[in-house]
Amino acid sequence: MDLTEAGFAISLYFIARTVGCFTGSMILAKWTTQKFFFTSVIMMLLAVTGFILFDTKMMLYVCIALAGYGNSNVFSMLFSQALLSMPSRQNEISGLMVMGLFGGTIFPLVMGVASDALQSQTGALLVLAVGMIYLFFLCFKLRKES
Question: Of 7, 56, 66, 77, which alpha carbon lies 20 to 30 A from 18's?
Answer without folding.
Answer: 56
